[in-house]
Amino acid sequence: xxxxxxxxxxxxxxxxxxxxxxxxxxxxxxxxxxxxxxxxxxxxxxxxxxxxxxxxxxxxxxxxxxxxxxxxxxxxxxxxxxxxxxxxxxxxxxxxxxxxxxxxxxxxxxxxxxxxxxxxxxxxxxxxxxxxxxxxxxxxxxxxxxxxxxxxxxxxxxxxxxxxxxxxxxxxxxxxxx
Length: 178
Hints:
Blueprint: H1 2-19, H2 27-39, H3 60-70, E1 74-78, H4 84-95, H5 97-106, E2 108-112, E3 130-134, H6 160-171
Parallel strand pairs: 1-2
Antiparallel strand pairs: 1-3
Helix pairs in contact: 5-6
């Protein structure tokens, strides 16, 4: 009886050990899995990659309301998801810790892939990427511009320092205001 019990235990141990071994995958299977992972699309957030940890408004109207009630300026980013200039600026924007911190603490944020009905938000044309600031009194800060005369609100990845300077300017109210 002991021999039978010992045999059954031994067989169960061998079966359990063989089931616990990980399968070995060849290189082709590993590559196929990596391709599948790359093809998986991350769910779209309101940030659209501009800073997932930041709080973004969903609509222009919501952003204006939040700016007025919180007494913070609004930063509006116009871009296109397939535009190489927008993608380059997005990457620089998202990788700048100083910019992200400043935006998180002091701004209401909105990024748009479409134009608004407010014609004040395209004072010199409808191009992308462009960034405009709106103060809490709902005045578009046309005085805060980038470095280009033909696209006054355009920024490039190399302009992150200028954008941070302009963010500091946007924090100061317009003269005569408040």
